[in-house]
Amino acid sequence: MSDALFLAVDLDTGQTKPLFQQLYEAISQHIRAGRIGAGTRLPASRAYAAEIGVSRATVLAAYDQLIAEGYAVSRQGAGVFASDIGTVAAGWIAPKTVRPVPVPDRSGPRPFHPGVPDMRAFPHRLWAQYVGRVARSETGGWMQGAEPFGDPVLCGAIADHLRDWRGVDVSPEQVVITAGAGDAMELILQTVAPDGAPVALENPGYPVLVQACKTLGNPRHWLAVDDAGACLPDHPVAVSVITPSCQFPRGMTMPVARRQAHLAGAGWIVEDDYDSEFRYSGTPVPALMALDRAQKVIYLGSFSKVFSSGLRLGYLVFPDRLLDRVHAVLRARGSRASVMPQRVLGRFMEDGAFHRHVRKMRRLYRGRRQVFLDGLAARFGAGLRYRDYGAGMSVVLEFAQRVDEPGLRSRMQGAGLSCPMLSDYYFDGGAQQGMLCGFCAFDEAEINDGLGRLETVLMPFLDLTTAKA
Amino acid sequence: MSDALFLAVDLDTGQTKPLFQQLYEAISQHIRAGRIGAGTRLPASRAYAAEIGVSRATVLAAYDQLIAEGYAVSRQGAGVFASDIGTVAAGWIAPKTVRPVPVPDRSGPRPFHPGVPDMRAFPHRLWAQYVGRVARSETGGWMQGAEPFGDPVLCGAIADHLRDWRGVDVSPEQVVITAGAGDAMELILQTVAPDGAPVALENPGYPVLVQACKTLGNPRHWLAVDDAGACLPDHPVAVSVITPSCQFPRGMTMPVARRQAHLAGAGWIVEDDYDSEFRYSGTPVPALMALDRAQKVIYLGSFSKVFSSGLRLGYLVFPDRLLDRVHAVLRARGSRASVMPQRVLGRFMEDGAFHRHVRKMRRLYRGRRQVFLDGLAARFGAGLRYRDYGAGMSVVLEFAQRVDEPGLRSRMQGAGLSCPMLSDYYFDGGAQQGMLCGFCAFDEAEINDGLGRLETVLMPFLDLTTAKA
To answer: Which of A444, B75, B132, B388 has its CA 20 to 30 Å from the CA of residue A288?
Structure first.
């Protein structure tokens, strides 16, 4: 017992931290700092315990922990010795940045943020009842990762939904549940375009899908968009990703002739059917998959736009001939969709509550769309153009002339408006001028107020360009 | 009204399907089949309605739908004409395979399946109460994708957990919630190893992490595993992925000298700390991140093993200097973690219920481990070797001699046993012989019964190889 360091350990019986832990921390700190050198013999436990006034068991527990972590080694019959732990890693200790805790934005989207449902009209109480009921009746299954392809009840409800609403006859086994569109796109690429096979994507299009191709390293080709939607690929590609029901972001529905032309191509087709439930006249246009006789269409469905983005659930429907392949991929990578919300949504759909909600939202959005378009016509003249496709959750406003986009963006932000520019959805620089306005998440008063602000912000830009021209 | 086809449409007022829908379907079918050719004028609506006995509005609605989908075009003043929709895509219609609906396996894992918690000991009623309470008190937030980096309450609870259990001082803002380990690994690679930077992974190691590198196209180097855990990389790599607390699958804890050596290297370090809560003597070894003075460790945590795999939730802790980068990546790809289970788990942790459960499971597993090891010693002699590291959820049994693995696998499956071979976790072929046995998900009777079956299956293999040698 020569080393004063060992005797100077400062143990405090008043702490909730156990004494052995305090002792272990004190000694390991000395070893890390080099104050107790490699090879130093630690005091014999019995004598040490007596000297510092703790039980021998406390000292032995501290030594065991030091040995477990490699700070010390025990040599049979000779005692316990400090290890050579190497030098402390070179480097700098950054001053701990004090970051303000981000306050989550509970105020809802600002006008005219596109693609978000109005969660104020969500049936929160009914949903809570379903959540509670499922939670009480489950005895373990929903906390276990039992079904790698998705909850069977949910898959069955989705198959029914697709038959009734989208005109596609699929069986529940063709359905795979995903953690949203990005996860779904990665799963598709791993299944039909591994090893960097080229992929064609719409331009303009949905950035999340482009990002997935980028992440997985698949070369990207662009599909131009004309009045009939996505054009055919001009390169041989393994997969084309298209939005036939409602082109994102422009909004047109692909006519059947163009659909047939895509189906006659060589590659796989991903049909991204993100908000086709919202068609405001007639019935929803059947899915492209309904015309697919060659089993080449993979259907990508989402709940983020028609139901809730917080669930982070989406789904894929694979043709029968791809099922073995996708199952192998899923077994290797694991599913990323939480089982818990799947169970609840499956029961919610099965009972018809989902469809009642979607129908209610469609009525609500139809009215809001009319308010938005009427207000637009009343406030803006020939400076703005838009096309009415009678579907979707947003409208593209085209500027008749070139507009200073950075200036417009900053003025819009200042006015509390949130409309992305059309150029945000172009991936090759050659964007048309315009912006995307969503009308779904705002009531009549909010729409009219937002349009007033939009007029104030936008008019000088339109006038200016007109004057210049 | 010359064309008999139009007059022969078969409308049924007894159906729930609206008449306009029936009419639209009949005509579109004729157009698709080529029976109504491109350019054919559709009958004038008023006369047609009278002939087939429906209202004119019905005919107009059907025509609108045909026009919306591109089956027909309207020419001002001239009428409505069938479009040229191209030829039907060449291809084959596969006979619809009748797949049996897979019956989800509710029987629980078979002995000695590793890495799964015993969900029979899960506090289902208490969890259901939390689920119900959170569902009732939420008025929208949890159905909205408001927090891309994770629920703030859950992030705070995780920071507290890491301080109390893992000796790491982090702030809630450093925590990012993920949809499990595969998702987490992809997020890490996109943040610190984009553009195919090389990654070092333990061999043997965890296949899900290897798969993520493969998916993203990062070249892989192998870290050999010796008695001190993962060795240092022998190539320059951007990232090393290691399991210092409990090497997977071998089980040893990395001593502090090896930890310092890893920290002194050039690249980023991913500390995969998947089940460190389960240490059966002393206190958990502090995380490697606790020694990290250079802000180079990214901590990867999981709930799948200590709590529930069905939640599909995990988390990452990034050093401060990486936060801006990881936030940018998350904004581009979107979060994949469902908000709903995050909210519940956050409250469950905050109230201490999570730690009570983990402590209870640790006691339970400690006892089961002893039963397993005692039974092993009683039944097997020198034919089997294992090392006792006093931690984790499984034990590696090493065969003293070469064993016919395919034969052993099939016999084990026949006996209702589920033990992966050590070779399943080696990625370069050079595997040691042995198998991985989990002891957590089985009670005493199941362990003893399983060991009896294991003895019956394994003995002939061990004897045979002994006889051959």
So the answer is: B75
Chain B positions in Cβ-Cβ contact with residue A139 (cut-off 8 Å): 124
Distance linking the first and last C-alpha atoms of chain A = 93
What single letter denotes the amino acid at residue A328?
A: A
To test the contact with chain B by mutation, choose from A340, A342, A388 the residue with the greatest count of B C-beta atoms within 10 A, namely A340
Instruction: Find the CB nearest A340 among B86, B172, B340.
Output: B340
Residue B458: CA atoms inside 13 Å, Cβ hemisphere, count? Answer: 24
Smallest Cβ distance to A143: which of B88, B212, B310? B310
Q: What is the ipTM of this complex?
A: 0.82
- As to burial, measured by CB atoms within 10 angstroms (0-12 exposed, 13-18 middle, 19+ buried), residue B133 is middle
What is the model's pLDDT at position A178?
96
Dihedrals phi, psi of A43, to nearest 5 degrees: -55, 145
Please provide the average confidence, as pLDDT, over all residues in chain A: 88
Separation of alpha carbons A294 and A333, rounded Å:
28
Structure tokens at A100: 């303000």
Which positions in chain B touch A286 (Cβ < 8 Å)? Answer: 69
Dihedral (CA of B422, B424, B425, B426) sign: positive
The strands making up A268-272's β-sheet, listed across from edge to edge, are: A175-178, A314-317, A297-302, A268-272, A239-242, A199-203, A220-226, A229-230
Contact A180/B32, CB-based, under 8 Å? no
- Sorted by where each starts, the structural domains of chain B and their CATH numbers stand as 4-92 (1.10.10.10), 119-353 (3.40.640.10), 356-468 (3.90.1150.10)
Q: Which residues of A touch B181 (CB under 8 A)?
A: 334
Here the tokens at position A5 are 């360091």
- Residues B342 and B308 sit within 8 Å (Cβ to Cβ): no
**pTM for this model (two decimals):** 0.85
Q: What are the chain A neighbours of B38 within 8 Å (beta carbons)? A: none
Partner residues linked to A53 by β-bridges: none
CA-closest candidate to residue B349, choices B138, B177, B184, B179: B177
Residue B339 to residues A129, A334, A337, B154, B302: CA-CA distances in angstroms?
Answer: 18, 19, 11, 10, 16
Q: Which residue of B has its CA nearest to A279?
A: B68
Pairing, β B434-438 against β A384-385: unpaired
pLDDT (tens place) for every residue of chain B, 469 residues total = 447 788 888 888 888 888 888 899 889 888 888 888 888 999 999 999 988 889 998 999 899 889 888 889 888 888 999 988 875 443 343 434 444 445 555 578 899 999 889 999 999 999 999 999 999 887 666 777 667 899 999 999 999 999 988 889 999 999 999 999 999 999 999 999 998 999 999 999 999 999 999 999 999 999 999 999 999 999 999 999 999 999 999 999 999 999 999 999 999 999 999 988 898 877 778 899 999 999 999 999 999 888 988 889 999 999 999 999 999 999 888 889 999 899 999 999 999 999 999 999 999 999 999 999 999 999 987 778 888 888 999 999 988 778 899 999 999 999 999 999 999 999 987 778 899 999 999 999 999 999 999 999 998 887 644 444 3
Give the span between the Cα atoms of A370 and A111, in whole angstroms.
Answer: 16
In a 13 Å sphere around the CA of B298, the CA atoms on its Cβ side amount to: 26
**How many Cβ pairs within 8 Å bridge chains A and B?**
333
> Distance from A318 to chain B by nearest Cα, in Å?
13
Question: Checking DSSP bridges between strand A268-272 and strand A297-302, what pairing results, if any?
Answer: parallel
Dmax (CA) for chain A in angstroms is: 96
Distance, CA of A319 to CA of A170 (rounded, Å): 9
